[in-house]
Each structure stands twice: as structure tokens, then as C-alpha cells.
Amino acid sequence: MEALIALIIGVLTACGVFLALRGQTFPVVLGLTFLSYAVNLFLFVMGRLAVGVPPVISDATAYTDPLPQALVLTAIVISFGMTAFVIVLALKARAEFGNDHVDGTHSGEDTAR
Amino acid sequence: MSGLSTHLPILPVLLPLVAGIVLLALRGAPLVLQRAASLVATAALVPLAFALLGTAGEGTQLVYKLGDWDAPFGIVLVADRLAAWMLMATALVALFALLQALAGTDVEGRHFHVLYQLQLFGLNGAFLTGDLFNLFVFFEILLLASYGLLLHGGGRLRVKAGLHFVVINLVGSTLFLFAVGTLYGVAGTLNMADLAVKLARTVPENLALVEAAGLMLFGVFALKAALLPLHLWLPAAYAHTSAPVAALFAIMTKVGAYSILRVYSLMFGAEAGAVANLLADWLMPLALATLVAGTLGAVASTSLRQQIAYLVIASVGTLLAAFALDSAEGIAAGLYYLPHTTLGTAAFFLLAAPIAGARGTLGDRFDSGAAMPGARVLGGLFFVAAIALAGLPPLSGFLGKFMLLRAALGSPWLAWVWAIVLTTSLFAVIALARSGSLLFYRTHSTPEVLSAPRPIEWLPAAGLLLLVLGMVIWAGTLADYSAATAAQLLAPQTYIDAVLGDRP
After folding, report:
1. Mutate to test the interface with B, among A25, A30, A39, A49 (most CBs of B within 10 A)
2. In degrees rounded to 5, what are phi and psi of residue B200?
3. What is the pLDDT of residue B191?
4. How many Cα atoms within 13 Å fall on the side-chain side of residue B431?
5. A32 and B162 in contact by Cβ < 8 A?
6. Which domain holds residue A68?
7. How far, in Å, CA of B336 to CA of B454, rounded?
């Protein structure tokens, strides 16, 4: 399971970085979303992987670390807010510049695809 | 009174938050009421910071446990000398920047005052928190508010600069979370004092992980501080936003510098065992390179606010070079230089607005135009601000740089620090002299009917420059305070004991 999770986080991060480096706002926003998914998973896994144990200290002998779950909840809320903001900003930039390039410059090569 | 003084460390965080919420509720109210509420809330931060400065100045490290949960399980706020020092600088800059915003910036868009208070909420929280994850949360709060403030008033260039600023900071936040997650995975805690204890005992097989996390954190803080090569977002963002916001942002780069100082003196300092002095090889070359890049940018600038933005980058370089000396004298020099450069650049940004206003369509571009109305006052203030920022005697920039040069005497970096700091100071003088003479002397008399700036527009800048003068008059007291702060930072055990109590 560890290898699978690591692979997922790695692929998500790689996709996120690749997309975030693109020249148009939509791929950039998508890349940032992928990155935030990757980091949320990463934070979650940092409490170690466990199956079928409660995240609350109770009478049960084993429990999984509850703190990363609290952290990841906060991180998800923040990344949702930030993504919403950057989408609105990208739309505003699209309206201001008339194209979706991050620099607001419109050249044929960039939009040919 | 004792009840209030126990809760003193949380008041600078709660006050702007409550003020922000109240202002949100007041958004339909008359403008004068909103302005009064915002002004009162911002002004109240100054006595609060003074009170904290007084308590911290006696050497006590106030630890405020939220919900009375003990560290490391609960969240703590720690008000030590460094935090109080940063709060004071923030409160002063915020007050004067707000005064200028009342001259008309605040009605250019919606919710200026709400965002302003939330920005202060994030800033104060970041300085006070004793917990790495809450540092992240407060970073996000201050960033989200800063996005709104940056875009306040709108406009093409502002949107473009804002888009870059937002995207690059979102990537920075992701990196921050990766670093925090790695540290949590290794140490099982996020309380900074507890992390300092745990990281010092890192087992060899985790060493690479901790170092990677530490350097990732450094990358994030370097991005906030606009350290080379992560400084490229700053000039456009600062040059295109409104003057009060740019002035408030003068403290934002210092958040990065503060975080570097806090984290690397506490968690990766000389006493941190296997991970000690993590940044020793990195910080000084990067800081000096930043100083050079910032100064060259200032020389090459084509408008006044762009030039000031590059001077902000140069000041970050100077500041981090002082911290990178890693001696008590070096950190003390940096801590004296920090409020000076914050107040100085903030004053300069506030001054750039009336100058641009008095030049009509030319704005703050370096083109010779008609003689501006009110040139005497503006020119005089420009002169004082330029002297302060270039580091000429007798103002505090000179004292700060002198302390830095003296602190470098015993360091292996002596030749580099002296050569680069002195040369860049010379270049800063040249750049500022050129822009000053261009703006104020090389004028021709084309009759463009412009009105002189109202006093409300330049008085805040004058007020900040008076504070810079005050830093010279009380230089002894301030230098003593920063020396004691440096000593406190270099003895992280007192911080750890204060936060964790007598726990192992």
C-alpha cells in the first residue's frame, strides 16, 4: 500500500508541476489543484497508513494518529479557498486581456494548440 | 489588569480579526464610520505592541496556551523579544499606511478596510505563533488578504502582477505543506520548541529527510522574503499596487526574513545536534547576491515605485546578510536594520503616490516633465527618505549598515560583506540621486495645470520619516534591545523551556 500511495502522490505532483509551468491560466490552475491534492494526500499519509483503526484515543488498543487528519482538513479548506480565488482571478485576467496567457500576451504559437 | 496582561499575547491577533468582522458588518454604514473603526483598531495595535515590547524587554517569554492545553499538544502563542519587535514595526507601518489610504485609496474598490484588518491579523499571528502549522495558516491568511489588497482598485497591470503573485505564492504554500508534513512524519510534532528538541535527536537514517524538509522550508521563506532567485515576482507586484498597500507590503518580505531567523535559530541553530547550521553554506551567498541584484534593479529602474521595490529587495539582502553572519552582533545589526528599512521603504512608497499625483500624466516614470506643484515639501521628504534608504549618515540606515560591517569583522565573509555592502550602497546613492534630480530638477515649464498634493497625502510619509529619525535619537536603546534579542535567539533553550515548561 505504501508504494501505491507514494506512486499516486508522485504522479499527482509531477502532473501538477508540469501543468503549473504552462503558459495559459487554465492549465496553471489545474496544476495547482493537482499539487494541492498531492499535498493533502501527503499530509494524510504522514500519520502512517493504518487500516480499520479509529483516529480517536479510546479503549481500543490501537489508534491511528488523528493530528494529520486535522491538518489535512485545514489544508483542504485553505486550498479550496485559494483555488476558488485563483479561478476568479484567472477569469478576470481573461476578461482584462482578452486571452488566457499568464502574461497577457497573445501570440499565435501559444494558442495554436 | 492582571487578567488583561495574561491575555496580552493574543490581543494583537484577536483585535484585527474582530475589527475585520465588525467592518464586514459595517459595510453598508457611512464611510466615516468604517474609516473611524478601521483607524481605531489599527491605532490600538501600537499601545498593545508597546505593552508586549515592555514585557518582552524584561526578558520574559510570554507563552499563551489557547484553551489552556499544554504544549506540545495544544496551540501556543509565544511573545518573546523578536515577536514583540516585529509587532511594533507592523503596527507603526500599518497605522501610517492606513492614514494615507484614508486620503482616497480605500474607496477605489470594495472591502479595503476589511482586507486591511485581516492582513494585520495574518501578520500578527505569523509573528506570534509557536507552531509550524499555524505559521502556515497565518501565512495563508495574510496572503489571501494581500491578494485582495494587491488587486484593490483593479486595472490591467495590477491584475497581471496579481496573477503572478497569487500563482507563485500558491506553489510556495504547497511546498510549505510538503515541508511541514515531512517534519511531522519524522518528528511527530509541529510545535516549534518541541521540534527543536526532537530534531536535535534525529537518528542518522532520517537525517536526509529532515534536511530536505528544512531546506524546503527555507525555499518557502526565501520566496516570501524575495531572496534571489525567488525575487522576480516582487517588483511588478509592489510597483503596480496602490501606495498604502505597497507600504504595508514593506513588512511582508520581513515575514520571510523573520521566519528564516526564527526557524533556523530555534530548530536548525548551533545547538541542534545533527541538523545544526543547516543554512550556513546557503544564506550568505544568496543574501549578498540578492543585495547586488536589488541594487542593480534600482539603478536600472524606469519608474520611482519600481525603484523602491528593487530597494526592498536590496534591503532584504542586507538584512539576511546580517542574519547569515550567525553571530550575536550580526543578528543584532540585522534586527536594528529591520525596522529601519521597513519604515523607510514604507515611507518611500507613501511618498511616491503624491509625487506621481503631482506629475499628472507622467506619473512616477523617470521622464522629465513640468515642475511639480508642492515640489519643496515632496523634494525635501524625498531627500530624507533617500538618505535613509541609501544608508548615508546621519540616519539609521547608516547606523544599521555600520553595525553590520562591524559585526562582519570577525567573520570569514569579511571581504565579501564589506565589498558588496559598500559598493551597493554607493550604487543606491547614485540611483536615488539620479531619480531625485530627474524628478525635481530637470523640469521644463510646460503649463500643465495640476494641484499641489494635499497635506493628508504626504503627512503619513513624513510621520514615518520622523520615526526613522527617532531610530537615530534612541539608537542606543534600540541597539541594546536588538542585542538582547540576538542573545535570546542564540540561546534557544530558554524558548524551549518557556514553551514546554519542565517537560523532557
Report:
1. A39
2. -65, -25
3. 87
4. 29
5. no
6. 1-49+64-97
7. 33
List of chain B residues whose C-beta atoms are within 8 Å of the C-beta of residue A86: 166-167, 170
pLDDT classification of A50: cutoffs 50, 70, 90: confident
Structure pTM? 0.90
Tell me: the pLDDT tens digits for B251-264? 988 999 999 998 88
Asked if the structure places residue A24 within a domain, the reply is yes
Domain count, chain A: 1
**Which residues in chain A touch residue B139, judged by CB atoms under 8 angstroms apart?**
none
From the list B133, B162, B173, which residue is nearest A89 (CB)?
B162
pLDDT digits (tens, 9 = 90+) for B105-126: 778 778 888 999 999 999 999 9
Chain A from 43 to 62: CB within 8 A of any B CB = 43, 46-47
* Cα gap B256→B168, rounded to integer Å: 15
CA B300, CA B427: separation in Å to the nearest integer? 11
**Is residue B439 scored above 70 in pLDDT?**
yes
Report chain A residues whose CB lies below 8 A from the CB of B159: 89, 92-93, 96-97
Contacts of B489 (CB under 8 A, 6+ apart): B82, B261, B262, B265, B266, B331
Q: Closest by alpha carbon to B468, among B352, B350, B372?
A: B350
pLDDT attached to residue B207 = 87
Across chain A, what does the average pLDDT equal? 84
For residue range B222-247, list pLDDT tens digits in order: 998 888 888 888 888 888 888 888 89
DSSP B60: -
3-state SS, residue B501: coil
Structural domain contains residue A27 = yes
Which of helix, strand or coil describes residue B194?
helix
How much is the ipTM here?
A: 0.89
- The domain ranges of chain B are 11-500
The CATH number that applies at residue A88 is 1.10.287
Whether B199 has a pLDDT exceeding 50, the answer reads yes
